[in-house]
Task: structure prediction
Amino acid sequence: MKLKSVATICKERKMVSLYFGKSGQYIGNETAFYLVPEKLELDQDNVLIIFDIPKDKQSCWMVEETSLPENISTADVLEGEEQAVIYQFDVCCYENTYRIIKDQEGIAVINTKYLAPLTDNEIELSYYIRRSVEGQEYIAVKSGLMLQAVITASNLNLFDQNFLDNLRDLQRECSHWINQHRENDCDRMPLYIDPETGEVEE
Result:
């Protein structure tokens, strides 16, 4: 985990939350929290120092120690859980970049800025969509089988009528382009090149 990237995320609200659960300590904000390495112990007294926040500015920050939300699971594996499929493109929209993933029950959106603290993982990350009792999607990010972070889905930040209208327009324009070039390709006569002379034959 890259603590400097966590610090960047927390600086947006000048708030740090230290969560304590059965599986260890987590750090983050209300949207995302990350597993703290076992060799590192964070508390209200040292976290801002580790974040390199000057002493004269620390009073502007809020640091809280709390337990994990009851509707969020930090178990490494849940029964019946399946790895989500990642769409092969990210969506840049409203000054943010989003990654969309899906499983058999639906889709979830990840704001990619919340993945920055995990870019130092040696093992490729995998994503699992979990859902609270209230139906709220959140993403369990794992390295191998070990949970590294939990991120609240950003579906509400991306999906609105304007996004759908732009998506339909993009689909229409792409279909038009494909059909137009398919017709042009059919109009072209194939060329035969003599393999011995390299000349184009009529």
